[in-house]
Design brief:
There is one protein chain. With 209 residues, the chain is α+β, with helices and mostly antiparallel strands. It has a domain of 84 residues. It is 54% helix and 14% strand. It has 8 helices and 5 strands. A hairpin with a 6-residue loop joins strand 4 and strand 5. The longest helix has 48 residues.
Length: 209
Protein backbone atom coordinates (compact mmCIF):
# COMPACT_ATOMS: atom_id res chain seq x y z
CA UNK A 1 0.00 0.00 0.00
CA UNK A 2 1.48 3.41 -0.92
CA UNK A 3 2.20 5.87 1.86
CA UNK A 4 -0.45 8.49 2.51
CA UNK A 5 -0.09 12.02 3.72
CA UNK A 6 -0.92 12.19 7.43
CA UNK A 7 -3.71 14.65 6.69
CA UNK A 8 -5.48 11.92 4.71
CA UNK A 9 -5.24 9.29 7.45
CA UNK A 10 -8.52 9.25 9.30
CA UNK A 11 -8.65 5.67 10.54
CA UNK A 12 -6.29 4.82 13.38
CA UNK A 13 -6.08 2.16 16.06
CA UNK A 14 -3.31 1.24 18.52
CA UNK A 15 -2.40 -1.74 20.69
CA UNK A 16 0.24 -1.93 23.44
CA UNK A 17 2.39 -5.04 23.42
CA UNK A 18 2.50 -6.71 26.87
CA UNK A 19 5.91 -7.06 28.61
CA UNK A 20 5.43 -10.83 28.75
CA UNK A 21 5.43 -10.83 24.95
CA UNK A 22 8.32 -8.43 24.32
CA UNK A 23 10.57 -9.66 27.19
CA UNK A 24 12.18 -6.23 27.17
CA UNK A 25 13.73 -6.70 23.74
CA UNK A 26 13.45 -4.27 20.83
CA UNK A 27 14.46 -7.09 18.50
CA UNK A 28 11.59 -9.18 19.85
CA UNK A 29 9.18 -6.26 19.34
CA UNK A 30 10.28 -5.96 15.69
CA UNK A 31 9.85 -9.70 15.30
CA UNK A 32 6.28 -9.49 16.61
CA UNK A 33 5.54 -6.68 14.14
CA UNK A 34 6.88 -8.75 11.24
CA UNK A 35 4.94 -11.80 12.43
CA UNK A 36 1.64 -9.88 12.47
CA UNK A 37 2.39 -8.14 9.18
CA UNK A 38 2.90 -11.56 7.61
CA UNK A 39 -0.73 -12.37 8.44
CA UNK A 40 -2.07 -9.23 6.78
CA UNK A 41 -2.95 -8.88 3.09
CA UNK A 42 -0.01 -7.60 1.06
CA UNK A 43 -1.74 -4.27 0.36
CA UNK A 44 -2.11 -3.42 4.06
CA UNK A 45 1.15 -4.76 5.57
CA UNK A 46 2.88 -1.36 5.72
CA UNK A 47 -0.17 0.23 7.34
CA UNK A 48 0.84 -1.46 10.60
CA UNK A 49 3.82 0.11 12.35
CA UNK A 50 5.62 -0.03 15.67
CA UNK A 51 6.52 2.82 18.00
CA UNK A 52 8.14 1.54 21.16
CA UNK A 53 5.79 -1.16 22.47
CA UNK A 54 2.81 0.34 20.63
CA UNK A 55 1.44 -1.12 17.39
CA UNK A 56 -0.38 1.42 15.23
CA UNK A 57 -2.67 0.71 12.30
CA UNK A 58 -3.27 3.77 10.08
CA UNK A 59 -5.31 3.90 6.89
CA UNK A 60 -7.30 6.51 4.96
CA UNK A 61 -11.05 6.78 5.42
CA UNK A 62 -11.62 5.50 1.88
CA UNK A 63 -10.31 2.07 2.95
CA UNK A 64 -12.68 1.51 5.82
CA UNK A 65 -13.43 -2.12 4.94
CA UNK A 66 -9.73 -2.97 4.62
CA UNK A 67 -9.05 -1.18 7.92
CA UNK A 68 -11.61 -3.24 9.82
CA UNK A 69 -10.34 -6.47 8.23
CA UNK A 70 -6.73 -5.64 9.13
CA UNK A 71 -7.75 -4.63 12.65
CA UNK A 72 -9.45 -7.99 13.14
CA UNK A 73 -6.27 -9.80 12.07
CA UNK A 74 -4.18 -7.83 14.57
CA UNK A 75 -6.63 -8.46 17.40
CA UNK A 76 -6.62 -12.20 16.68
CA UNK A 77 -2.83 -12.31 16.48
CA UNK A 78 -2.45 -10.55 19.83
CA UNK A 79 -4.63 -13.08 21.66
CA UNK A 80 -1.76 -15.57 21.99
CA UNK A 81 1.18 -13.29 21.17
CA UNK A 82 2.87 -14.12 24.50
CA UNK A 83 3.32 -17.72 23.31
CA UNK A 84 4.95 -16.76 20.00
CA UNK A 85 8.20 -18.80 19.78
CA UNK A 86 11.43 -16.87 20.30
CA UNK A 87 13.77 -17.01 17.30
CA UNK A 88 17.61 -17.02 17.52
CA UNK A 89 18.29 -13.32 17.05
CA UNK A 90 15.60 -12.51 19.62
CA UNK A 91 16.92 -14.81 22.35
CA UNK A 92 20.41 -13.42 21.83
CA UNK A 93 19.09 -9.90 22.40
CA UNK A 94 16.82 -10.86 25.31
CA UNK A 95 19.56 -12.69 27.23
CA UNK A 96 22.44 -10.54 25.90
CA UNK A 97 24.36 -13.61 24.74
CA UNK A 98 26.63 -14.40 21.81
CA UNK A 99 25.75 -16.72 18.94
CA UNK A 100 28.49 -19.13 20.08
CA UNK A 101 26.93 -19.25 23.56
CA UNK A 102 23.49 -19.93 22.10
CA UNK A 103 24.88 -22.84 20.07
CA UNK A 104 26.82 -24.27 23.03
CA UNK A 105 23.97 -24.01 25.52
CA UNK A 106 21.50 -25.39 23.00
CA UNK A 107 23.78 -28.39 22.40
CA UNK A 108 24.21 -29.19 26.12
CA UNK A 109 20.53 -28.66 26.96
CA UNK A 110 20.75 -25.50 29.05
CA UNK A 111 18.70 -23.73 26.35
CA UNK A 112 15.99 -26.29 25.52
CA UNK A 113 14.66 -26.15 21.99
CA UNK A 114 10.94 -25.71 21.40
CA UNK A 115 11.25 -27.16 17.91
CA UNK A 116 12.51 -25.92 14.58
CA UNK A 117 11.27 -23.54 11.91
CA UNK A 118 12.13 -23.54 8.23
CA UNK A 119 11.95 -20.31 6.24
CA UNK A 120 12.90 -19.23 2.76
CA UNK A 121 15.33 -16.37 2.54
CA UNK A 122 14.05 -13.36 0.62
CA UNK A 123 15.26 -13.40 -2.98
CA UNK A 124 16.90 -16.81 -2.63
CA UNK A 125 15.88 -20.31 -3.57
CA UNK A 126 17.33 -22.11 -0.54
CA UNK A 127 15.66 -22.44 2.82
CA UNK A 128 17.15 -22.40 6.31
CA UNK A 129 16.08 -24.32 9.39
CA UNK A 130 16.73 -23.07 12.92
CA UNK A 131 15.69 -23.81 16.49
CA UNK A 132 13.09 -21.70 18.27
CA UNK A 133 12.55 -21.32 22.01
CA UNK A 134 9.60 -21.24 24.41
CA UNK A 135 9.13 -17.62 25.58
CA UNK A 136 8.13 -18.81 29.07
CA UNK A 137 11.44 -20.66 29.48
CA UNK A 138 13.39 -17.72 28.05
CA UNK A 139 11.61 -15.39 30.48
CA UNK A 140 12.41 -17.71 33.39
CA UNK A 141 16.11 -17.79 32.42
CA UNK A 142 16.09 -14.02 32.21
CA UNK A 143 14.36 -13.60 35.59
CA UNK A 144 16.71 -16.02 37.38
CA UNK A 145 19.79 -14.38 35.88
CA UNK A 146 21.58 -17.68 35.29
CA UNK A 147 23.49 -16.59 32.20
CA UNK A 148 26.44 -15.32 34.27
CA UNK A 149 26.46 -18.59 36.21
CA UNK A 150 26.63 -20.49 32.93
CA UNK A 151 29.54 -18.36 31.78
CA UNK A 152 31.42 -19.04 35.01
CA UNK A 153 30.78 -22.77 34.59
CA UNK A 154 32.05 -22.62 31.02
CA UNK A 155 35.18 -20.71 32.08
CA UNK A 156 35.92 -23.28 34.80
CA UNK A 157 35.39 -26.16 32.36
CA UNK A 158 37.64 -24.50 29.77
CA UNK A 159 40.39 -24.01 32.40
CA UNK A 160 40.12 -27.66 33.44
CA UNK A 161 40.32 -28.79 29.80
CA UNK A 162 43.44 -26.66 29.30
CA UNK A 163 45.00 -28.15 32.43
CA UNK A 164 44.30 -31.69 31.26
CA UNK A 165 45.61 -30.95 27.77
CA UNK A 166 48.80 -29.47 29.22
CA UNK A 167 49.29 -32.50 31.51
CA UNK A 168 48.71 -34.90 28.63
CA UNK A 169 51.18 -33.03 26.43
CA UNK A 170 53.78 -33.08 29.23
CA UNK A 171 53.25 -36.80 29.80
CA UNK A 172 53.63 -37.50 26.07
CA UNK A 173 56.89 -35.54 25.94
CA UNK A 174 58.22 -37.38 29.00
CA UNK A 175 57.43 -40.79 27.53
CA UNK A 176 58.95 -39.81 24.20
CA UNK A 177 62.16 -38.59 25.84
CA UNK A 178 62.34 -41.71 28.01
CA UNK A 179 62.01 -44.01 25.00
CA UNK A 180 64.52 -42.01 23.01
CA UNK A 181 66.95 -42.01 25.91
CA UNK A 182 66.67 -45.78 26.28
CA UNK A 183 67.37 -46.36 22.59
CA UNK A 184 70.41 -44.10 22.73
CA UNK A 185 71.80 -46.02 25.74
CA UNK A 186 71.43 -49.34 23.95
CA UNK A 187 73.08 -47.97 20.82
CA UNK A 188 75.94 -46.51 22.81
CA UNK A 189 76.43 -49.83 24.64
CA UNK A 190 76.47 -51.71 21.37
CA UNK A 191 79.01 -49.32 19.85
CA UNK A 192 81.26 -49.55 22.91
CA UNK A 193 81.13 -53.36 22.91
CA UNK A 194 82.03 -53.63 19.24
CA UNK A 195 85.17 -51.60 19.89
CA UNK A 196 86.51 -53.95 22.58
CA UNK A 197 89.56 -55.99 21.55
CA UNK A 198 88.75 -59.63 20.85
CA UNK A 199 84.96 -59.11 21.07
CA UNK A 200 84.23 -60.88 17.77
CA UNK A 201 86.29 -63.92 18.78
CA UNK A 202 84.55 -63.92 22.11
CA UNK A 203 81.24 -64.12 20.31
CA UNK A 204 82.30 -66.85 17.92
CA UNK A 205 83.39 -69.06 20.79
CA UNK A 206 79.78 -69.08 21.95
CA UNK A 207 80.47 -67.56 25.29
CA UNK A 208 77.65 -65.05 24.76
CA UNK A 209 75.04 -67.78 24.38
Amino acid sequence: MPKHDKNHIELLKTWVLPPAATLGSSVRMKGILLEIRARLPHATKKSLNLDGRELTLMMPASEKAEFHAASAVVVKALVDIETLPVIPREIEDILAIKTSERHRWLADGRLPSAGTRTVKLRGRARKITFHVFDPRIVGDILDRGVVEDWREEDAAAAAENRRRAAYKAKLTRTLRNTTKGGSNSETEHGDAASNLAGWEEFGRDGLLR
